[in-house]
Amino acid sequence: MNDVVQKTGKQPAQRARRLLPGLAIKDGYTKHPFDLEHEVRTSGLIAGRDLKSGNRNDRHNTAYYGVAPSVFHATIVRWRRTRPLAPIDEFTFIDLGAGMGRAVMLAAEHPFRAIIGVELNPTLLRMARKNLTRWRAAGKALAPMHMLGGDVVEFKFPSGPCVAFLFNPFGAPVMRSVLARMAKDFAGRPGQLDILYINNEQERVLEQQRGFTRIFLGEVRRSRADAIADHRILANQTDGEYASSNAEDCSIYRWIG
Prior knowledge:
CATH topology: Rossmann fold
CATH class: Alpha Beta
Distance between the termini: 53 Å
Largest sheet: 7 strands, mixed
Order of helices and strands: HHHEEHEHEHEEHEHEHE
CATH architecture: 3-Layer(aba) Sandwich
CATH superfamily: Vaccinia Virus protein VP39
C-alpha cells in the first residue's frame, strides 16, 4: 500500500474507497497462487450484496470468487469425454458471470474457437479486461478472448457450437431467465449447447428446464495446492460467511431440444 501511495500521490483512505468490499487487506484479502504465478488479479471474495451495478438483477447475485484452476481444468476434461457434437476448436466458450476473468483465462489454455466472458459489475469487468490484456501479452491465450459488459439474461449466443460455463454466479430467478434465453437461441440446434456448472446450487432449476439432458453429476476435486490455497483464503475472512471444501459439486448438461 505504501508503494501505491508514493506512485500515485493518493492517500490510503482514498484508495480504500475505490475497492469493493472483500478486496482490501482489512477484509481478509489474500492472493491465490494463480495470481502470484501469472501476475494477474482474480483473488478476493465479494458477497453478492456488495456487487451493485444498478441492474434489476443485482439482488440475485451470489458472490464473486475465482474458480479453482484444478477444478476448472478437470471439468473441461470430463466434458471432452462426453463426446460433444464437434471438436473443441469449433466451440465458443462463454463464461456467464465472468467476474475478474479467471475462468476466461483458464479457458484460453484450451484451443476453443473463441472465448467470451459476460460480466454485469463494471468494476469486475474493468479488472477482467486488464487481466486479459496481461494474459495475451504473456502469450498464454490459445484462442481469442473477449469481455462483454451487460446482463447475462440479454446475452445472445453466437452461431455454432457453444459451451456455457457457470460458477454459481446467480440465484434461481436469473437462472430461469438464462435457460429460457438458451432455449430460444438454440431452438432447432440440438447438441450445439453444453453447460458446465460448477458449485451447482441451482441444479433443481436446470433439472426442471425442458430441452436439456444431464450427462454428468458429481464431485470434482481440487488439487492439493488449490485446496490449501482456498482453505487459507476463506479462513482469512473477517466474518467467516463462506467456507471451502476439497471438492466442488458439478454437473454437465447438453441441449437436445
